[in-house]
Amino acid sequence: MTDDADTRLAELEATVSALAARVQELEDDREIRDLLARYGYMADNCDDEGFVNLYTEDGAINLSISKEAAASMGTDAAVWSGKDAVRDFITNPNGHHSAQLYGKSMHFHGTNLVTHIDGDEAVADSYGMAVATADGENTIVSAGNNQWQLRRVDGRWLIRERRGATLGDDKFTTNLDATPE
Amino acid sequence: MTDDADTRLAELEATVSALAARVQELEDDREIRDLLARYGYMADNCDDEGFVNLYTEDGAINLSISKEAAASMGTDAAVWSGKDAVRDFITNPNGHHSAQLYGKSMHFHGTNLVTHIDGDEAVADSYGMAVATADGENTIVSAGNNQWQLRRVDGRWLIRERRGATLGDDKFTTNLDATPE
Amino acid sequence: MTDDADTRLAELEATVSALAARVQELEDDREIRDLLARYGYMADNCDDEGFVNLYTEDGAINLSISKEAAASMGTDAAVWSGKDAVRDFITNPNGHHSAQLYGKSMHFHGTNLVTHIDGDEAVADSYGMAVATADGENTIVSAGNNQWQLRRVDGRWLIRERRGATLGDDKFTTNLDATPE
Q: Global pTM?
């Protein structure tokens, strides 16, 4: 090989390597969008175990809900840590499993999506709303933003922590501040 | 060319070929998102023929609507097959062309989007809601999920079948089950 | 280098160059989605200066609002040109800064997104809705489409003009017509 060809080949290898990293990031962005979409599917299609399995073993839900809202769900906590706690959250008979919501609500998650990907860790910010139907009327039962702490485990993006704030709540306007630029 | 350079070149060709396939899939994903966006545009901007042309020649709309809902549209079917039937659907004076909806509604399609692409065939799952305005008030007149069976024809993604289920309907919680993992 | 290797190397260089342009476009598409997401964040998180800085120096907001709606905001214009005017728009005490909206509303922008990218210029079409909360009830206070004229400045996509039309308004059904195919 001539020196010139060697240089061209080396340059091309470097270009392709950098390009592959950019494609990987775009694929990660798409997979994270999918993950948030499935968050809605699992919740709305009554697949509780599928919902739990979107979380890491130490996954957590951290919602800035009021004491009153927590009390109405029969809990005094706004944080559910670990898969068993996540299961408690999604099967709460006064919460997601209530007659008003279970099989009768849709979680539109992942709009206004911004993802920050750093290897096997990622932060995703997004907006979401839950719509419930009753007597032919559709109501936005909740709206809020979420900061999703994500981790890739065995090649699959999972939720390490959902930090959610409800529109109207004190923490809403600062909940996405902690997100990397 | 030395053996070493030949090996490096062959490896790079294989890497670039695989990378091109991944980029193609990301482009397909984007084009499918565009298609579902335009589904809303055509419906909401009163472009009936544009709407029809988003479907393949044998394209179909398959909605899990109740007999009552079908009757209110002056039809006893929940399936519209072929472009003529799709045209009947979108120009139905008791449906989309009603005074309450035509030019006064928006179809937010393509949220919670997950695409499964396999060559020139694809399945896309998504959430959607229709918002109508009347007397300055905006109402969610319907919400549901859709499983879109898509096909690439002459380089353009088209709808082969829209399988829609309305929130609250029996089929809603299973409508996305048939989707590939 | 043999002629054969030279040909292969030149072909590969051309392929990689074309691939890089396609990846760049996908990255631009993602950055534009981010920009519209942040449009909501800045508005909803009460970051007025952050909102202003999403616009170019000559950036403009052009809304097809009625004279009545304009009058209720204490203005007779539906166009705000330049950063100072954009600041006036977002800090209007009878508009975005009203007690009903400021810190109590969410702008779901960037659904039904279609982007047209041409170098450092782009047009993005999208749907949006604003949801406000009051007394525990969430209402869609406005819904509409937007044609966003965008420009890349110093490597960052900014808004050159937001052309918005409200659902129910005369211009709604034609607002996206000017968009490239």
A: 0.95
Torsion-angle region of A103 (φ positive above 0: left; ψ -120 to 50: alpha; else: beta): left
Spatial contact of B149 and B163, defined as CB atoms under 8 Å apart: yes
DSSP secondary structure of B117-173:
EETTEEEEEEEEEEEEEETTEEEEEEEEEEEEEEEEETTEEEEEEEEEEETTSTTGG
Instruction: State the smallest CA–CA distance between residue C13 and chain A in angstroms.
Output: 7
Q: Angle CA(A140)–CA(A144)–CA(A146) in degrees, nearest 5?
A: 140
B125–chain C nearest CA distance, Å: 15
Rounded to the nearest integer, the mean pLDDT of chain A is: 93
Interface test with A, best of C41, C113, C129, C137 (most A CBs within 10 A): C41
The answer to whether residues C106 and C44 touch, using CB atoms and an 8 Å cutoff, is yes
* pLDDT lower than 50: segments of chain B: none
CB C131 within 8 A of CB C108: yes
Looking at the complex, report in whole angstroms how far the Cα of residue C145 sits from the nearest Cα belonging to chain A: 15
The total number of residues written for chain A in this structure:
181
Which tokens in the block code for residue A136? Answer: 């032919």
% of chain A with per-residue pLDDT over 70: 96
CA pair distance C115, A23, nearest whole angstrom: 19
CB contact under 8 A, B138 and C129: yes
Tell me if B138 and C125 make a contact (CB, 8 A cut-off): no
Residues of chain C with pLDDT under 70: 1-2, 66-67, 76-77, 181
Cβ separation B125–A41 shorter than 8 A: yes
